[in-house]
Amino acid sequence: MVDKIQDKKKQKKERLEQAAYDLFSEQGFSETSIDQIARRAGVAKGTFYLYFPDKEALLNQVIFKCSSRIFKEAMQESRFKQLDDWVERVIVLIDYVIELFKERPNDLKVINKNLSWSMVGDQVEKGDGEGVDQEFAELLSYYLEQLEGRGYERKAAFQLIFMVVELVGAVCYSSLVLGQLGPIDELKPMLFETVRKMIRN
Length: 201
Known about the structure:
By secondary structure, this protein is mainly alpha-helical. It has ten helices and no strands. The chain has helices spanning 2-27, 34-41, 45-51, 55-80, 86-103, 105-111, 117-126, 134-148, 154-177, 184-200. The relative contact order is 0.10. This is TetR family transcriptional regulator.
């Protein structure tokens, strides 16, 4: 009986998250109301507040889940590549993220300009992010260890990953969503070379 109640609660929360994702990608965060989210999710407005204190908290949860899913998928892909040069493995990861965004522009619209690495990374490191995936946490540790093995302190490794992710996210958003800078495939060589310099230096 308790399990069924918990399952129903989980389903309602997931419906709210999915409704928010859909509405944020369709019309933007500021144009989306809690009423609209509740209606799309098929729940009463009061139910919303059982799971989230406000719309910003829901946005953060949606961004966290979306970002961590993207990171996990890309990290898995790059780790399986048999490349001797670890930096080139990072480039494969970035290229994979870009291709994901080309296929799923709504993810980029919801995340809005960056992958919110500070939120994802901090929550994984502290272990306090709701729904933190253990496999993703292990993949993140692998990348941090690679940087530490190259002389970075852990804090500096986090900062470097943050800067790389912010750069990639901003370039993708400008190109794929705003139509600025030029086609993303034309920007890739310069972007990749910039990341190589950031990591190797």
